[in-house]
């Protein structure tokens, strides 16, 4: 049950999420049935409210990130591709002080990005990331990695 909408434009390109053009397109998909239209309007209002809340929280986080306590870490982390000031602030506040981690691997282990391993004797079994530890930092870094990947140019074939 429900409706499925094509999220591509007339030329077959994927539509951007939450842009003005997207909202015009979404409004063009408004159902004619009154009950479905009421549900549609409710969901649109929820998304618009969440967008507004997100903007307000990001503005507050950016103001806090400029404080002397966080400025150095935020500026350093923001130099990494895919990490903006809000993500850097999240990582800095969740870590507290990065100097308490002797290596990058120790930090990765703390936030659950280290690979799992189930080994016994001569048998080695490597697995995916452990997903233990600080989920906010892990989520922020995974999101930054996806952002970096989606914004990076496609590699060119050299042969």
From TrEMBL:
<dbReference type="InterPro" id="IPR003346">
    <property type="entry name" value="Transposase_20"/>
</dbReference>
<dbReference type="GO" id="GO:0004803">
    <property type="term" value="F:transposase activity"/>
</dbReference>
<dbReference type="InterPro" id="IPR047650">
    <property type="entry name" value="Transpos_IS110"/>
</dbReference>
<feature type="domain" description="Transposase IS116/IS110/IS902 C-terminal">
    <location>
        <begin position="75"/>
        <end position="153"/>
    </location>
</feature>
<protein>
    <recommendedName>
        <fullName>Transposase IS116/IS110/IS902 C-terminal domain-containing protein</fullName>
    </recommendedName>
</protein>
<dbReference type="GO" id="GO:0006313">
    <property type="term" value="P:DNA transposition"/>
</dbReference>
<dbReference type="GO" id="GO:0003677">
    <property type="term" value="F:DNA binding"/>
</dbReference>
<dbReference type="Pfam" id="PF02371">
    <property type="entry name" value="Transposase_20"/>
</dbReference>
């Amino acid at each position: 049950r429900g409706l499925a909408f094509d999220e591509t434009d007339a030329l077959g390109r994927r539509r951007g999420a939450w842009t003005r053009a997207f909202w015009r397109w979404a409004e063009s998909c408004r159902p004619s049935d009154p009950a479905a239209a009421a549900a549609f309007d409710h969901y649109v209002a929820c998304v618009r409210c969440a967008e507004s809340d997100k903007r307000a929280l990001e503005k507050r986080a950016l103001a806090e990130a400029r404080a002397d306590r966080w400025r150095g870490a935020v500026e350093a982390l923001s130099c990494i591709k895919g990490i903006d000031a809000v993500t850097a602030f999240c990582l800095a506040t969740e870590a507290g002080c990065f100097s308490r981690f002797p290596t990058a691997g120790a930090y990765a282990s703390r936030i659950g990005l280290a690979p799992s391993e189930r080994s016994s004797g001569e048998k080695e079994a490597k697995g995916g990331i452990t997903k233990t530890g600080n989920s906010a930092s892990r989520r922020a870094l995974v999101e930054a990695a996806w952002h970096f990947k989606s914004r990076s140019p496609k590699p060119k074939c050299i042969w």
